[in-house]
Amino acid sequence: MSPLHVVILAAGQGSRMKSALPKVLHGVAGRPMLHHVIATARQLGAEQIHAVIGHGADQVKAATAGQPVNWVLQEQQLGTGHAVAQALPDLPDDARVLVLYGDVPLTGVDTLEGLVSSIDNDTLGLLTVTLDNPQGYGRILRDEQHQVTAIVEQKDASETQLQIREVNTGILAVSARRLKDWLPQLSNRNAQGEYYLTDIIAMAVDHGMAVAVSQPGNAYEVQGVNNRLQLAELERWYQRREADRLMTEGATLADPARVDVRGNLTIGNDILIDVNVVFEGDVELGDGVSIGPGCVIRDARIAAGADIKAYSVIEGAEVGRFAQVGPYARLRPGTRLADDTKVGNFVETKKAVVGEGSKINHLSYVGDATLGRNVNVGAGTITCNYDGVNKHQTVIGDGVFVGSNTSLVAPVNVAGGATVGAGSTITRDVADGELAVARGRQRNIADWSRPVKKS
Ligand code: UD1
Ligand code: CA
Fold it and tell me: What is the domain partition of the chain in residue ranges?
């Protein structure tokens, strides 16, 4: 089959966003709209993706670095037909060309597969949608046989044409050869003085080509974003679909309207997700995981049976089976909690490997540390991992008991079975079986009279 080339139009200014950020970089589900469109094009198996940029071109390119895109500069925005024409030199004659838009981020891959598969050298594929309020869109004109004959833009339409509710989504597919014939022939003699891509429909019909019309399953799939209200609408639609997917796949959501997924969330069965939870990046939840209200979880693997309690923030971490985290815990990147561990309230961990059954229950900082199995870290324990210049490791062996309010000045090693007395500042290694106490000795002074207030 002839190769598929996708041309994404993204040169417009988007002035109604009232933003220094180019419109196509505004995010839906935590990702720039343009990146959604690029991902869709890749899923379609596009041989090459061409993005036509103009306003904010440098910013758009910088934000999209590393993605397989051929950048095409449209210096002046003279219309959608002119925009596609800028990509013509990069389109092989035998290509099928699909035109997408950087500000229409959520078109379904299956919708587009249908559109693309409907075309050949004598058939143009057009995606239309029927709207209650067609205001602003190009209207689809059909003849008595119901065949599409042309598209007329809102500003060029007659009163009668304005009554038509079937509108152009802008998305179409056609052979490169045809585009190369037609685009150079476009004129800008119309109400907006623009080169309209839509004029190729009438050209195709004149040449005896068929127009294969398809429609998306949902109008949101073809909704463009011109302002932040529309951005928010698409965001909510996206999130509602994600919520529906999660419920279908085995999650109970306390409120499907109060969970946001900004990335890829993979789940097992019997998941519980309470209100106001945000997932970012790649997150995996094993069977039976429970996430309390207000948690933020980013790039994490949480194994079966783990219980993440309210208002915990987890990033770049792995949580083992039946571990308990929070409330109010913060697991930072490089944290690996083994099975049956407990990290309680107001505990921060970073690059901390915590062995099976170990507990850090209250008010602690554990960073650059390795803890063995069944370690008990008392309340208020701090690993002093930073000397102002370098980070150092703390290593704690199996079964160690660290008394409350201990400072472990790294690098330091507390061997398995050792005990650290509460309130200690540990600066030297502790051996197996030893008790380390490093605090001021208590003095009790008898008959102490407290100062009295001067009258
Ligand atoms: C276009 C269609 C209209 C359709 C509507 C759907 C034309 C002539 N009209 O109208 O039939 O109903 O989309 O939303 O195609 N762009 C460029 N370079 C340009 C002009 C536009 O990159 O020179 C990009 C814009 O950034 C935007 C998209 O193309 O993302 C659509 O352009 P816009 O001028 O907004 O088209 P509409 O008037 O909405
Ligand atoms: Ca326009």
Answer: 4-222, 228-436
Q: Is 59 left (phi over 0), alpha (psi -120 to 50) or beta?
A: alpha
Q: Which ligand minimizes its atom distance to the CA of 14? A: 1
- The pLDDT tens digits along the chain (455 residues) read 799 999 999 999 899 999 999 999 999 999 999 999 999 999 999 999 999 999 999 999 999 999 999 999 999 999 999 999 999 999 999 999 999 999 999 999 999 999 999 998 899 999 999 999 999 999 999 999 999 999 999 999 999 999 999 999 999 999 999 999 999 999 999 999 999 999 999 999 999 999 999 999 999 999 999 999 999 999 999 999 999 999 999 999 999 999 999 999 999 999 999 999 999 999 999 999 999 999 999 999 999 999 999 999 999 999 999 999 999 999 999 999 999 999 999 999 999 999 999 999 999 999 999 999 999 999 999 999 999 999 999 999 999 999 999 999 999 999 999 999 999 999 999 999 999 999 999 999 999 999 999 98
CATH class assigned to 228-436: mainly beta
Q: What is the CATH number of domain 4-222?
A: 3.90.550.10
Q: What contacts 362, CB < 8 A, 6 or more positions away? A: 344, 345, 346, 347, 379, 380
- Token readout for 245 is 């997917």
The pTM assigned to this predicted structure is: 0.94
Question: Choosing from 36, 50, 55, 362, which is the catalytic residue?
Answer: 362
- Alpha-carbon gap, residue 321 to 301, rounded angstroms: 10
Can you tell me the distance from the alpha carbon of 360 to that of 341, in angstroms, rounded to the nearest whole number? 8
Q: Check pocket membership of 418 for ligand 1, CB cut-off 6 A.
A: no
Q: Give bridge partners of residue 413 from the DSSP assignment.
A: 395
C-beta of 273 in contact with ligand 1 (< 6 A): no
| 362 catalytically annotated | yes
CB of 431 closer than 8 Å to CB of 414: no
CA distance 202 to 156: 15
> Rounded to an integer, what distance in angstroms lies between the CA atom of residue 338 and that of residue 356?
5
- Is the C-beta atom of 170 inside 6 A of ligand 1? yes
The burial of 63, by beta-carbon neighbours within 10 Å (0-12 exposed, 13-18 middle, 19 or more buried), is given as middle
What is the SS3 assignment for 418? coil
